[in-house]
Amino acid sequence: MWKGRFQKETSSLLTQYGESISFDWRLYKYDIAGSIAHATALERAGIITQEECKKITEGLRDIGTDIEQGSFEFDMNLEDIHMNIESALTDRIGDAGAKLHTARSRNDQVALDVRLYCKDSLNDIQENLRDMQRALVQCCKRFPDSVIPGYTHLQRGQPVLFSHHLLAYVEMFERDALRLKDSIQRIDVMPLGSGALAGSTIALDREFIAEQLGFTEISQNSMDAVSDRDFVAEVLFCLALTGTHLSRLSEDVILWASAEFGFISLSDEHTTGSSLMPQKKNPDIAELTRGKTGRLYGNLMSILTLIKGLPMTYNRDLQEDKEPLFDSIDTIQNALVIFSEMIDGMSINEGQALEACSDPMLFATDIADYLVKKGVPFREAHNIVGQLTAHAIESRTPFPKIEIQQYKEFSENFEESVFDLFDVKSALTARTAAGAPSPKNVSKQVSKWENKLSGE
Ligand code: ARG
User: Fold this and answer.
1) What is the distance between the alpha carbons of residues 256 and 246, in angstroms, rounded to a whole number?
2) Are 280 and 329 members of one domain?
3) Does residue 313 have a cis bond before it (omega within 30 degrees)?
4) The last residue of a domain, from among 57, 81, 102
5) Do the domain assignments include residue 16?
6) Is residue 141 situated within a structural domain?
7) Exposure string for 289-318, b = 16+ CB within 10 A, e = fewer
8) How far away, in angstroms, is 312 Cα from ligand 1 center?
C-alpha cells in the first residue's frame, strides 16, 4: 500500500514480525461497518458517486459474508485486517475500492474498530455478569435456610446465612456491571475523521458518520483520538477487578469443597478426578479461574506500560494493545459462563455447615451484646466475655454448659435468659439492621435481586 516511495520489498522477517492479521481479523465486522459509514460520508461530500458508494458497500458486505463463512483468504503480507479488507475490495470492484481510503488513515480506522469492538463486548459481558448473578440468586433460593460460619482472618467469627454470603458476590458483580456501563461512556466517542493525526483537508460530516455507527459523541482532538488507549486500560482494569471477585469466590468454593470444611458439594460435571488418587474430586473450575486472574492483571500491566512512554501521536507500539484486550475479554467471558454453570450444580451440605456453626464460641459477641442491652458499656462487656471465654477454654465447658451461678461471677447482669442466645436461628433472627443477615432481611434481598435481574 506504500510501494510508491520504496524501491525494495519489505524483509520477510519484518512482515512476520509486524503482522497483526493473525489476531486483529476479529475486528472485521467493525472494520466493514466503519468503512460503509465512511463511504456513505464520502458520497455525501461528493468525493465518490452514488454508484461507487453502492459498489463499495456491496463489496464490503460480500467480504463480510466470506469472512464469516471462513472462505476469505487472509494474507499476512497485507499486515492487518484493514489492509486485507481494502485490498480484497479493490480486487473485487476495481477503482471504486481504491477511493475508499480517502480522508482516512489506519490510525483513525483502528481506533474506531477497537472502540466498536469494546462497546459490543462490554455489553455482552454485562449480560454474562447478570447470568452469574442469576445463578447465585437461584442458589440462594435452593438453600434459603442454610447457615454457615462467617469468617474474619479465616477464623470462625459469627454464623451467617449461606445466602448472605452468596449475595455479597451478587453485590460485587453488580458494581462490576455498573463499572462497565460507565466506561462505555468514554468508549462511545467516534474518532474517524482524525486521519493520521491532523484530520484531512477533505472534511466529512463526522456527526453523520457517528450517527450511522451508533456513537453518541465525536472526538474533539485529532491527535488525542488516534493515540488514546485510555479506554483499553480502563476496560482491562474493570475486567481485572471482575477477575479479582471471581478469584475470591473461587477461593471460597475451594475451601468449602475441601474435606476440612465440607460445606458444599460440586457436581460431577464441574469437577475432575485424579489419575492417581481414586478418591479425589477436584474443584478445577475454581482453581483455573483463580489462576487466570494472573493473566488479567498481566494484561492490565501490559497496556499501562505500553502507553506510558509514547510520544504523541500514533506509534506502532499501539498495535500491541489488541492481544491483551482480546485475551481479557475472552478470559472473563469464559470464566463467567462456566462459573454460572458450576454454581447451578452446587449444593450445600446443610448438616456439616450447621455443625460448624454450633461452635458456641460463635456466640461470644452476642453475649457481649446481651450485657450491653442490660446497660453494661460495650468495652466492659467485651472484657467480661473475654474472661468468660478464657474460663470456658480452661475448664473445657462450652458456654451453654456453664452454670448460671458461674455466669453471675463474671457479671451480676447475667440471667437465665442468657441461654436463649445459644441457638443459631435465633442469633440470626436478632440481626435485623439493614444489611445484616436476619432471615427476613436476606429473603427480602433475594427477592429484590430476583426482580431486578428478571427485569433486565
Ligand atoms: N495494525 C495497526 C494497529 O493495530 C493499524 C494501524 C497502523 N498504522 C500505521 N501507521 N502503521 O495499530
Assistant:
1) 15
2) yes
3) yes
4) 102
5) yes
6) yes
7) bbebbebbbebbebbeebbeeeeebbeeeb
8) 15
Asked whether 2 lines ligand 1 (CB < 6 A), one says no
What's the CATH code of the domain at 382?
A: 1.10.40.30
142 and 68, same structural domain?
Answer: no
- Of 106, 320, 323, the one to substitute when testing ligand 1's pocket (max ligand atoms within 8 A of C-beta) is 106
Residue 347, helix vs strand vs coil: strand
Supply the CATH number for residue 28's domain: 1.10.275.10
pLDDT above 90 for 456: no
Mean per-residue pLDDT for 143-168?
96
Q: What is the pLDDT of residues 37-75, one digit of tens each?
A: 999 999 999 999 999 999 999 999 999 999 999 999 999
User: pLDDT tens for residues 325-355?
Assistant: 999 999 999 999 999 999 999 999 999 999 9
Residue with CA closest to ligand 1 atom 2: 319
How many domains does one find in the chain? Answer: 3
Q: Is 106 in the pocket of ligand 1 (CB under 6 A)?
A: yes
Could you tell me if the CB of 107 is within 6 A of ligand 1?
A: yes
Is residue 153 among the annotated active site residues? yes
- Please give the Cα distance from 106 to 196 (Å, whole number): 7
Active site residue 22: no
20 lines ligand 1 (CB under 6 A): yes
User: Closest ligand 1 atom, CA of 318?
Assistant: 12
In whole angstroms, give the CA distance from residue 292 to residue 336: 12
Domain identity same for 411 and 448: yes
Considering the domain boundaries, does residue 166 fall inside one? yes
- Rounded alpha-carbon distances, angstroms, from residue 126 to 183, 220, 336, 456: 12, 29, 10, 11
**Nearest ligand 1 atom, CA 314:** 10
Q: Where are the alpha helices (DSSP H) in 143-229?
A: 162-187, 206-213, 222-227
- The domain of 436 spans 360-454
| Co-location of 88 and 135 in the same domain | no
Question: Domain end: 54, 69, 102, which one?
Answer: 102
Residue 319 alpha carbon to ligand 1 centre in Å: 6
Beta carbons within 10 angstroms of residue 277's beta carbon: 8
Q: Residue 274: inside a domain, yes or no?
A: yes
- Distance (angstroms) between ligand 1 centre and the Cα of 56 equals 22
226 and 241 fall within a common domain: yes
Q: Which residue has the cell 463474671?
A: 410
Dist. CA 419 → ligand 1 center (Å): 73
